[in-house]
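Reply to dn_fold:

You asked what the input looked like. This is it:
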Amino acid sequence: GSFRVMVLADIHMQASGSSGAVSAVKERIKTLVDKINPNLIILTGDNTINSSSETQLRANIDAIVSYIEEKQIPWCHVYGNHDHENALSNAEQQPIYQSYEYCISKDVESLSGTGTYVHGVYNKDGSLGSLVWLIDSGAYASGGGYDYIKQDQIDWYKETSLLIKEYNNGTTVKGMMAFHIPLIENRTAD
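and this is what came back:
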């Protein structure tokens, strides 16, 4: 069959801001969900901004996912550089995200960052069809500029890919990967 993924990037939801702006974002998300009819929605970072408390963070997340939850669509997320600027750390935000019924986000806690994980997408016959990789690419580098995917995450990706291939009778499983900070190659490519 087919599997449709909808990506929402850089929403910068600030529910404490103008109620008109919040309503406009909620309406755009509703319109997109209804038009695309996705099987999975990925929030690719800078989801929320300036949340000064858990209550405000939850209001910001609610504003983004309330219609998605209502439609019972699985969704997941990664963090961006602005999610890091909320009052709660990404590690403190993670269980809040995961508390939503249709959130399928996870975290391999032994890795750099928060929210690096992989999901299998299965065919109707139960076989593994594809993979959705999500990687926390950080926020800002210690020397200035944007952060990047760390070596332990790359090693985990390589090792996990090989394990999945072995699980899949030696056949490589194709997939997609989502993260927030673009690779440096995006800047240097012609």
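The longest strand covers residues 128-134.
Hope that clears it up.
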